[in-house]
Design brief:
The mean pLDDT is 83. The chain has 77 residues and is mostly loops. The protein has no helices and no strands.
Length: 77
């Protein structure tokens, strides 16, 4: 600033060392990250009961056990 009543002559300017201002800008960069997955299908045999029933049928004549059985052979009744 120049003042009218200042008896001093203008001084030469002094240049200070340069100040450095760094402005960082960040930008997304896609980096593929691969995650391998192995699926293991394990098959286990588990015993499970499966019930089967057999069926037989016979006829009995009540009271016939006291009679002698008829046999085929020589002879007559």
């Amino acid at each position: 600033m120049h003042c009218h009543h200042n008896p001093c002559p203008p001084a030469k300017p002094v240049i200070a060392p340069t100040s450095r201002v760094v402005r960082d800008y960040y930008h997304p960069q896609v980096v593929p990250v691969i995650h391998p997955i192995e699926v293991v299908n394990r098959h286990h045999c588990v015993p499970v009961p499966c019930h089967y029933y057999t069926y037989s049928e016979r006829d009995e004549v009540a009271g016939a056990a006291n009679y002698p059985s008829k046999s085929k052979g020589i002879g007559r009744y």
